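example protein:
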Amino acid sequence: MRSRHPEGTLEALLMNLPNQLTVSRFALTGLFLGAMFGRFPGHESVALVFFSLAGITDFLDGRIARQRGLITNFGILMDPLADKILTCSAFIAFVGRGLMPAWMVVIIVGRELAITGLRLLAASKNVVLAAEGYGKHKTISQIVSIVAVLIVLSYPQWGPVGEWIFGGHLFGVPWSVHVAKGSKWLAVALTALSGSIYLWRNRHLYLQDM
């Protein structure tokens, strides 16, 4: 759980390095989507780079904020929002590109909306819901699955090296395709499991008035 740091002025907020990284993730999400649906040579590889950079900022902003005591209300609100927008945008883009069934993405996006609603409900009751281990594993699995799909899209553009590393066949198709497919199923399963556990453990928040 983030401890709080005085907000100060808007200028002070924008000079806060963790907040800059969080804001940059919104920009990188837009660039990632532009590359995903672009028509220029190698656009899938560019999308992979943008998504990877966004994932790195996700790791760095919270770590730097905790180490330097730069935690702000802005960061507490916008950091998880930036994460959800990044991952949900990627999965929705996969549906648009025919890379993932819509029902899988409905589960992922529905879970994020449900947990966000639960946290808003908790906040209205002055209750703070801490993140749980299942949720962290869910996020990691989602990022891994997105990167795996992007690699499958991108490696044919990397020449013989990409083909040699990622194009080796296993049961008639490149092994990286099996990894991407398995990682998508794992991400959906962990997303559904973590959301169900979180909703069940905090059911008193939405059942007490029934």
